[in-house]
């Protein structure tokens, strides 16, 4: 596949520009909400990206899966997931997209926000990640806090985290890279027509 640069400076695969363009339109139409809101990081913003409106949407979820798989096509991993709740639909969309393409077995996992006190008392649910190469995902990230919490839990469970990928980066790239992780996002604030 030929790699080309998108207007925001992110790389995209030429054969998938239609999916990326369609996903961006849905992000803008469904997920960008104007109005004062407190983010999970504690920061206050005048707009919000509610990506669950997209990742749980009948047309959005398949696009999320395909675009996110293409975004990290050159990374080797066999399981994907992150901190519940934002990462869950992203991971499942990628699992289904990989299965639809055939030839790639991709598992998904869920990282709990805290240790489970009953049952098997697992913090990382789903297929065992110990000794496996995994991708940590999130729908959107401002500070990187949620995804870095997931990365710490994954490492504690014995996984090798190959990198972090998000649908929309609101500013987490610097913190994630400072933690020594590779980082990619499908869209930036520039793509969404927002400044921060």
List the helices and strands and how they pair.
Blueprint lengths: L2 E3 L5 E3 L3 H15 E7 L5 E6 L2 H4 L4 H12 L7 E5 L4 H14 L5 E5 L12 E2 L7 E9 L3 H12 L3 E10 L3 H6 L4 E5 L9
Parallel strand pairs: 5-6, 5-8, 8-9, 9-10
Antiparallel strand pairs: 1-2, 3-4, 6-7
Helix pairs in contact: 1-3, 3-4
Question: What features would you describe in this structure?
Answer:
Catalyzes the transfer of a ribosyl phosphate group from 5-phosphoribose 1-diphosphate to orotate, leading to the formation of orotidine monophosphate (OMP). It catalyses: orotidine 5'-phosphate + diphosphate = orotate + 5-phospho-alpha-D-ribose 1-diphosphate. Belongs to the purine/pyrimidine phosphoribosyltransferase family. PyrE subfamily. It is an enzyme of class 2 (transferase). Keywords: Glycosyltransferase, Magnesium, Pyrimidine biosynthesis, Transferase. The structure is a single chain. This protein is of the alpha/beta class and about 200 residues long. About 30% of the residues lie in helices and about 30% in strands. The chain contains 6 helices and 10 strands; from the N terminus they run E-E-H-E-E-H-H-E-H-E-E-E-H-E-H-E. A 6-stranded mixed β-sheet has the order 7-6-5-8-9-10, sandwiched between helices. A two-stranded antiparallel sheet has the order 1-2. The protein has a two-stranded antiparallel ribbon with strand order 3-4. Strand 9, helix 6 and strand 10 form a beta-alpha-beta unit. Helix 1 (about 15-30) packs across helix 3 (about 60-70) and helix 3 (about 60-70) packs across helix 4 (about 90-100). The N and C termini lie far apart (about 35 Å). Residues about 1-15 have low confidence and may be disordered.
